[in-house]
Amino acid sequence: MLREVDDAVRQDQYSQFAQRFGIPLIILLVLALAAFAGWLYWQNRQEAAMEQRSEALIGALDQVEAGNLDTGAELLDPLASGDAAGPQSAARMLQAGIALEQGRAGDAAQLFAAVGADAEAPAALRNLATIREVATRFDSLPPQQVIERLESLAVPGNPFFGSAAELVAMAHLEAGNTQRAGNLFAEIAKAEDVPDSLRSRARQIAGQLGVDAIVDVEALLEQQGAGAAAAAQQAPQAAQ
Question: Is the domain of 150 the same as that of 107?
Fold first, then answer.
């Protein structure tokens, strides 16, 4: 008897709950399902758009590698004028590279400058674009301007240290600051994360400026010996 009363009370409570909150809960559930469906649709469109942008970049690169620079630049136009910050910056960087290959240094510098000034572009691309712009316009820029624009990147440990520091050191040379230039070239030569070709060049220039840039003499001699041996081995093959 008590169980029957208890069941009746619970059934009455469930009925009252359903009457009070049933419709709002159904509406909430429908809204949640609609929101989830909308999110899936948005995500699908985002992925589709990302795939299209990736395919456009790959297609443009294929055209550039094939020597079809004009076609590659045309394929990049929609991305370069789009609203997706990453692909837009990448497309502009590629277009700038194409412009350099075609001898249009002024157009390339403008494209590099646009990426470097774009606050929405990835920081790494902005820094790279700034370095490329300064390198493109180096002969027309005052040495102090080169130094001021790249000095913050010409710091050991920075991913762009080698490229930025070489330009800053050359600017110091142009300004007559031979000691500062030599010291910076020496830092480049001693940096292990800098390409060997740049380290070798920096070591030679530092030596010409009277700055010792050799850290390990034995290692350097061994490296030069290995390079000379490789060159001697390749010489007969080249002659054939």
Answer: no
pLDDT digits (tens, 9 = 90+) for 37-75: 554 544 555 454 555 656 666 666 666 677 777 877 777
Contact 136, 109 (CB under 8 A): yes
Domains in the chain, number: 2
- The pTM score is 0.65
In a domain, 125, yes or no: yes
The one-letter amino acid code at 109 reads A
* Range of the structural domain that residue 188 is part of: 141-231
